[in-house]
Design goal:
Blueprint: E1 2-5, H1 6-12, H2 21-35, H3 44-58, E2 67-70, H4 72-76
Antiparallel strand pairs: 1-2
Helix pairs in contact: 1-3, 2-3
Length: 78
């Protein structure tokens, strides 16, 4: 289990603290395309990290705390 914070999620997407929703989406699309496991040279672990970070940042139900505990295996099995 890993604790994910907004700052960590933004760092995983290569962004800074004040990134807009548009910048988050643009970065996610670019990185997910680059690291997609079905693509030659893709990286499944990096893709999972990017996907979890994006899900955390765009989730309509923001956690009450500034941190969020998740299990990446549970996320990818949905």
């Amino acid at each position: 289990m890993t604790i994910l914070t907004r700052k960590k999620a933004l760092t995983d997407l290569g962004l800074y603290d004040r990134a807009t929703d548009e910048e988050i989406k643009k970065s996610y699309r670019s990185l997910s395309f680059r690291y997609h496991p079905d693509k030659k040279g893709g990286d499944e672990e990096k893709f999972k990290t990017i996907s979890v970070a994006y899900d955390f940042l765009t989730s309509p139900q923001k956690p009450a705390r500034p941190e969020f505990a998740f299990n990446s295996d549970d996320f990818m099995s949905q």
